[in-house]
Specification:
The complex is a heterodimer of chains A (about 525) and B (about 190). Chain A is an alpha+beta fold and about 525 residues long. Chain A has eight helices and 31 strands. Chain B is mainly α and about 190 residues long. Chain B folds into two domains: about 90 residues, RNA polymerase sigma factor, region 2, helix turn helix motif (Rna Polymerase Sigma Factor, Chain: A), CATH 1.10.1740; about 70 residues, Arc Repressor Mutant, subunit A (Orthogonal Bundle), CATH 1.10.10. Chain B has seven helices and no strands. The longest helix of chain B is centred in the C-terminal third of the chain and has 25 residues. Classes of the chains: A alpha+beta (about 525), B mainly alpha (about 190).
Chain lengths: ~525, ~190
């Protein structure tokens, strides 16, 4: 580009103008902007550059300043609000203060049009048809999509498991959200802990306080998740949350589960791990707005840990794993920036202090989500790598998985091969039982015309590491349009995996928010080196 | 919004419905732009108004009688932004564009409408490559007219940081936008 690129007599140079030019049309003022405008008067290059940014602003306003999709009616939104509020009212939190209605609204209809105009509909039909032609060979039911009626572990029970923890091969606990029991009763404002003993899993329901019920409803109906960790048959901890909209802490002691009102000073906890009754570890949900923090409970009080690492205010702790009271690791996105490929592994150094163990460079668009260390010299990390390009290039393309192994003092990428299922596989969790025995929970999500990110049609693939290679393990046929394993735990030679299996009536595309109502809690048992579906007799 | 007449500080359900009427469309436009998922944006709009309703139930500002409209608007966008950022972080592991956005599948005979779709798609893809916070700064400042100070209060950062993010967002967006258009054999729309 040929430019009249001279430095004018004003105080600013063209180089200094680079960072100001994008902002000149955004109504900012002050001395520096006055100087920038002065520079503009005498610099043709900067004038052209400014014009380009002005054109970009206009294009952005045109693209993102309107919607061709008609909005909801106000009635629909108000009905949603009042229905959810009524649920909350049942817990007694807001009934006394609800805004009074001068003229109670009765929704006339529910309208959620996807597109307006016949032309748009025709384009969609055309696109779907062409997509079906293009992808037809690999769409529809892949290996991971079992199809057929769901085979739940607890027939008649609706809900899902979040996590499982084993005390011994014969005893353990699992954290669940149950929305309907086999006798047809709804169970709002509760969480359910399933207890495994004498070969049976038995539900124990805990009624939530009003505040906890509100917290676990805040994120909507589809986001229940949590972790559970038993340090003995008589002591354990659990954290339940709904997306990242606040958490509720539970403690098992004196033979029962109870809410903990005086927990760590954070409303957004994740990833709890109990080593003993005097050593419990938990960290802030990486997807909440809370600053990254690790807390330790010594049996009496919670102490926030000091992390001696170069962490920004937006740093996110993604995974924490304690091997003992004095040995543990966590992986942190130190910058909190999605584009930064450096992930810091920190280790517990004693005295409530953590220091840097190593740094994983996940490469361009790489993201680390889970960590499992066997020792300070041996560990694994999982994640994914984004695809660069415009949406017409990236849409419909599988996101590659990334797997890193730490040995000989450095992190190295390890390729993964999947022999079954489709290509759309993400790595969810990793657990290493030893240097020669590890498991990865992977999720295979099928793709078909019309199914987008909000629709799910997925099934779990389990990968096993035998000390030399990662291979797919045989998993049970659970039926259903969607199923997932969310937690896995072992004790001795046995183990359990928990999650859900779900379908919608009439073959409709299931979504995350349907799972609590249409899903059923699902358990797999690991016996004699293989996984089998557990079905309650 | 019509004048509120309740003698107490808690606004009425009708007034709240007027508030929904007044803001829901623009909020949806904002959230659809940020997430790239119009259906997801509907859910986020509902979530935002549910949060507002809960605040109103407790008589919390700005949902009390006599509050300036701008304060309510800022509150709604702040909560909507937080909801969207939370969702994006949770769902970023699987980010698919809807198939019905595939302009490449359109027939070759381009009409002006097709050109608009193609250009929109480039911008959409370029925006999706920004960090969510940068995209928030861009949309709130350029499209929805909030000042740097207002955005900084929403994101709990400084106005300088907002401007830094905004400048970075525009530079990246422009680079991606200008780079892609010529590759498609079309004249860029920039001067």
């Amino acid at each position: 580009m040929t430019m009249n690129h001279r430095t004018p007599a004003s105080a600013l140079t063209c180089a200094q103008m680079e960072s100001l030019l994008p902002l000149l049309d955004d109504g900012e003022n002050g001395p520096v902007y006055a100087a920038a405008l002065e520079h503009l008067h005498t610099c043709a290059r900067c004038q052209r550059e400014r014009a380009r940014y002005a054109a970009l602003d206009q294009a952005v306003r045109e693209r993102f300043g309107f919607s061709s999709v008609r909005p909801h009616t106000t009635e629909v939104i108000m009905r949603h609000i009042t229905e959810r509020s009524e649920q909350t009212d049942n817990t007694g939190t807001t009934a006394q203060n609800a805004p009074h209605s001068n003229n109670p609204r009765r929704p006339r209809h529910i309208s959620r049009p996807w597109l307006s105009g016949l032309g748009a509909v025709a384009v969609v039909v055309l696109l779907l048809g062409m997509a079906a032609l293009l992808f037809g060979g690999r769409l529809g039911l892949g290996v991971g999509s079992r199809g057929g009626p769901p085979r739940p572990s607890f027939p008649g029970t609706h809900g899902l498991f979040a996590d499982v923890s084993m005390v011994s091969p014969t005893e353990g606990w699992a954290l669940a959200q149950v929305t309907k029991t086999p006798d047809g009763k709804s169970t709002p404002n509760t969480v359910t802990f399933y207890h495994y003993e004498n070969g049976l899993w038995t539900p124990e329901t805990v009624t939530l306080s009003a505040a906890a019920a509100t917290t676990l409803q805040t994120g909507g109906v589809g986001g229940f998740n949590g972790t559970i960790s038993m340090d003995s048959a008589t002591d354990g901890w659990a954290v339940a949350s709904n997306y990242n909209r606040g958490s509720v802490l539970f403690h098992f002691a004196d033979g029962k589960w109870q809410e903990v009102r005086q927990g760590p000073p954070s409303p957004n906890l994740a990833g709890i791990q109990a080593i003993s009754a005097h050593s419990v570890w938990v960290f802030n949900d990486p997807y909440s707005s809370e600053s990254s923090a690790i807390f330790h409970f010594d049996g009496t009080s919670w102490t926030q840990q000091t992390i001696n690492a170069n962490l920004s205010a937006h740093a996110r702790i993604l995974s924490l794993q304690m091997a003992s009271d004095s040995r543990g690791w966590a992986v942190v996105s130190a910058s909190g920036d999605f584009g930064n490929p450096d992930y810091t592994v920190i280790q517990y150094a004693g005295d409530d202090t953590w220091t840097v163990h190593s740094v994983i460079n996940a490469g361009n668009l790489g993201e680390i989500s889970g960590l499992a260390m066997v020792s300070a010299d041996d560990g694994w990390a999982i994640g994914q790598r984004g695809i660069d390009g415009p949406s017409n290039v990236t849409a419909g393309k599988p996101v590659p998985q990334v797997l890193y192994h730490y040995s000989n003092g450095k992190w190295q990428s390890v390729p993964l091969q999947f022999t079954s299922g489709g290509a759309f596989i993400t790595l969810q969790k990793i657990v290493m039982r030893s240097a020669h025995d590890g498991w990865i929970i992977a999720q295979e999500q099928n793709m078909r015309p019309g199914v987008t990110a909000s629709g799910i049609e997925k099934h779990t693939i389990l990968l096993h590491y035998d000390g030399s290679t990662w291979t797919e393990a045989q998993t049970p046929d659970v039926g259903g349009d969607a199923s997932a394993i969310t937690g896995i735990a072992f004790a001795g030679d046995s183990g359990w995996a928990c999650g859900f299996v779900a379908s919608l009536p009439g073959g409709q595309t299931i979504q995350d928010s349907d799972v609590p109502s249409y899903g059923s809690p699902m358990l797999w048992s690991y016996q004699n080196g293989g996984w089998v579906l557990y079905q309650q007799k | 919004m019509r004048k509120r007449t309740q003698p107490d500080r808690i606004i009425s359900e009708d007034d709240f419905a007027c508030l929904v009427d007044a803001h829901q469309h623009r909020l949806h436009v904002y959230l659809a732009g940020l997430t790239g998922q119009p259906e997801q944006a509907f859910d986020l709009v509902q979530e935002t108004f549910y949060d507002a309703w809960r605040a109103a139930c407790k008589g919390k500002p700005p949902f009390v009688t006599g509050t300036a409209e701008a304060d309510i608007r800022r509150w709604l966008y702040r909560v909507a932004t937080n909801n969207a950022l939370s969702l994006l972080r949770h769902h970023r592991l699987i980010h698919w564009e809807p198939l019905d956005d595939h302009v490449e599948l359109l027939p070759d005979a381009r009409t002006p409408f097709d050109d608009h779709l193609a250009e929109s798609d480039i911008l959409r893809a370029a925006l999706a490559r920004l960090s969510p916070q940068d995209a928030v700064c861009l949309l709130l400042r350029v499209v929805h007219g909030f000042s740097a100070r207002e955005v900084s209060e929403m994101l709990r950062t400084s106005p300088e940081n907002v401007n830094t993010r905004l400048a970075r967002a525009k530079q990246r967006l422009r680079a991606a936008y200008e780079q892609r258009l010529p590759n498609r054999g079309e004249a860029p729309t920039f001067p």
